[in-house]
Design goal:
It is a single chain. By secondary structure, this protein is an alpha+beta fold. The protein folds into two domains: 82 residues, no CATH class; 249 residues, no CATH class. It is built from 15 helices and eleven strands. A five-stranded mixed sheet has the order 7-6-5-8-9, with helices on both faces.
Length: 412
């Protein structure tokens, strides 16, 4: 009988515990998902329990279970046996919102694949990467399956680009450009992204298009395209960084739209022109500037910043003063909306893992595939977005009601 060293014994125990814990988690996930599916079906059947045929038989009944299938999740594959519904009503059928008919992966996998791809992981390396993240249940996501998924997403992206926008009115829009390296091309495409807020306060991805850097022509082409598809009502406010291309194009496409510079970008740009020893105090002042309760108070902090740093750090102050007119526009809108209007955070947070300002991708495969992956990542992120704070005030903004320091201005 083999004798084990203390190190080998500890290793075996740790592996056994890990496997046991994973099995416990897997069994728990199966129970929870099955219970949720049962509840969903029972609720559906109960909703139509009063509908019967001429013989008094219910029109909607439970009818056993579908064949078992494996669903790939964050803890590997789990077997699921989904209850079946027999809906005898003409033209009606039950579709699970929790686990659609042909789903084989949890939604988190759909987010993970684009992220890995945009990080530069090659198609052939996906099974190994996914197995390391998801466990041994992931090998079913073979290179062939990944390639097939990419083709599907490319087709979805093409259709999405052509969708009709006549029924849309975006009150606020955020704009930014994201850069990628592409292995199969000498180009370094800039992906132009627009996100908008509907009249109900829901954030939606408005446009994702390839651009030539962040030029005026690229932004002009994008804005003309969305207008041609029906987006004719001008947003009340646009939020973006200092890339002049967007603002020049916006002036032509929607001249009535007000401008708001992103304070996150502006703060970073100003601090970049200051020595590190000064940056903490300067950052505090900038923070106090855009967090001030009134525009007048913000202007006072602005003047204090200039009085402290103008003589020694002229470039930093020039960076701040050049956008003075568009740094404080948010004060003319409801105070509850300010947290959303001061920055391009909806775009920044969505693409945090692939932003060119923080970490370059190691190289995506092709421009076409890159665009499809950006689209898919944005669509998955959109599902988690919540409505704007104070969304009930949006109709007032649409009506053109005046706000002063975030409060509605009453008629004299």
């Amino acid at each position: 009988m083999k004798e084990y060293t203390p190190f080998e014994v500890e290793s075996i125990v740790q592996d056994t515990l890990a496997e046991s814990l994973e099995e416990v988690l897997r069994k728990g996930a199966v129970k929870m998902l099955c219970a949720a599916l049962e509840y969903e079906v029972n609720e559906y059947i109960a909703r139509f329990a009063h509908q019967v045929d001429e013989q008094g038989h219910r029109q909607v009944v439970k009818n056993g279970y579908h064949p078992a299938r494996d669903v790939t999740t964050g803890i590997g594959k789990i077997p699921i046996k989904q209850p079946r519904v027999h809906d005898r009503r003409e033209g009606e059928h039950f579709t699970s919102a929790i686990l659609p008919k042909y789903a084989r992966r949890s939604p988190s996998i759909d987010t993970l694949i684009p992220t890995l791809y945009l990080k530069g992981v090659s198609t052939s390396a996906f099974p190994q990467a996914l197995e390391a993240i998801l466990g041994k249940g992931a090998p079913g996501l073979s290179p062939a399956n990944i390639t097939r998924l990419k083709r599907i997403w490319e087709d979805e992206y093409k259709q999405w680009q052509k969708r009709d926008l006549h029924d849309k009115h975006y009150v606020y829009i955020w704009a930014d450009g994201i850069y990628f390296n592409v292995r199969l091309s000498d180009d370094r495409p800039c992906v132009l992204v627009l996100i908008g807020t509907t009249a109900e306060g829901k954030k939606e991805v408005l446009a994702i298009e390839q651009g030539q850097r962040e030029s005026t022509l690229s932004w002009k082409t994008l804005l003309q395209e969305v207008k041609a598809r029906g987006l004719n009502q001008a947003p009340a406010l646009a939020i973006g960084d200092g890339a002049m291309g967007f603002w020049h194009a916006l002036e032509e496409a929607f001249p009535a739209t007000k401008h708001q510079r992103c304070w996150v970008h502006k703060t970073a740009n100003v601090l970049d022109k200051l020595p590190k020893s000064v940056q903490p105090d300067a950052k505090g002042l900038l923070h106090d500037m855009y967090q001030s309760p009134t525009k007048e108070a913000a202007h006072k902090v602005y003047e204090r910043f200039l009085s402290l740093y103008q003589d020694r750090y002229e470039k930093a102050c020039d960076c701040l003063t050049k956008d003075f007119e568009t740094l404080f526009t948010f004060y003319d809108f409801p105070a509850k909306h300010w947290i959303h209007l001061r920055t391009t955070n909806p775009i920044e947070s969505t693409f945090a893992t692939v932003r060119h300002r923080t970490r370059q991708t190691k190289g995506c495969g092709s421009v076409k595939a890159t665009m499809a992956m950006v689209y898919k990542l944005a669509m998955e992120a959109e599902k988690t977005w919540v409505r704007l704070r104070g969304y009930r005030l949006i109709p007032l903004v649409i009506e053109g009601v005046k706000f002063v320091d975030g409060e509605r201005k009453l008629a004299a």
